[in-house]
Design a protein that fits this description.
With 164 residues, this protein is an alpha/beta fold. Helix content is 30%, strand content 31%. The chain is built from five helices and ten strands; from the N terminus they run βαββαβαββββββαα. β3, α2 and β4 form a beta-alpha-beta unit. The longest helix has 20 residues.
Length: 164
């Protein structure tokens, strides 16, 4: 599943998904919920109920540097989920967190409003200042890869084609 959208950032306390509930309740259609779960992989911060609530709000995707559960429900949904781990144990609520603040997710800084794009290969974060010329740069890269693939089809090696 592919997606693109602006980040709605969430800073979670370890094992606590209270801030995610608040973020899901204010999410605008097309938002990407991005959560800093502190890489904790022993307690799921996201599951079927919260996912259903976010899907109802029109969220484009969910990216969590932490764990999820209810994976069969998540996979059946049209909203992609990227997470560090899958565990059966659920979260607690009560210590809080923060919504729409600068966070890190997977070791990458993410700010509210950054654009996230994802597919089967993973997720990238694009800062607003990087957007100008992005389509052209991506097009040039795709054209170069097509040229290399054409060369392989002609019998050339990647060593030759990539000047290795």
């Amino acid at each position: 599943k592919r997606f693109a959208g602006q980040a709605l950032t969430v800073h979670c306390m370890v094992g606590d998904n209270l801030a995610l509930h608040h973020a899901a309740s204010i999410a605008r259609p097309g938002a990407v919920l991005v959560a800093d779960g502190r890489s904790h992989d022993q307690t799921a911060l996201w599951g079927g109920i919260l996912h259903t609530a976010a899907e109802k709000r029109g969220v484009a995707a969910v990216v969590i540097d932490g764990a999820v559960r209810d994976v069969a429900e998540l996979r059946a949904s049209g909203v992609p989920v990227y997470a560090r781990a899958i565990v059966p144990s659920g979260p607690h609520k009560g210590f809080g967190g923060e919504v729409n603040a600068a966070i890190q997710c997977g070791g990458v800084a993410v700010h509210p409003g950054d654009v996230l794009v994802g597919d089967d290969d993973g997720v990238v974060v694009i800062r607003p200042g990087q957007i100008d010329g992005l389509v052209e740069r991506c097009g040039a890269r795709i054209a170069n890869e097509e040229k290399v693939l054409a060369g392989i089809a002609e019998g050339k090696t990647t060593v030759e084609l990539l000047d290795l």
